[in-house]
Amino acid sequence: MVNAKPYHINQRYAYMGFMFIDPEYRGQGVIQNIIETLKNWAKTKHVVEARLLVYHDNLGAIRAYEKSGFKKHTLEIKLEFE
Questions:
Q1: Residue 58 placed within a domain
Q2: Inside any domain, residue 23
Q3: InterPro entries from the entry (predicted)?
């Protein structure tokens, strides 16, 4: 669980770090099972929100997360200096 910034609606949320599913196991519901387990655990802690980060061009992961109910929320942008 993470404490949210003061401007967020929910003060605590579950956070999912970067995950990797071996290509051999993709499309078999692994992400959905992980997310369902996280949701069940979070509910026992009275947490009602989960967040994660995903690279914008990782379309397969984005589809998997959206299939589990995640919605795009913010956009992080960066500038690299040479």
A1: yes
A2: yes
A3: Acyl_CoA_acyltransferase, GNAT_dom
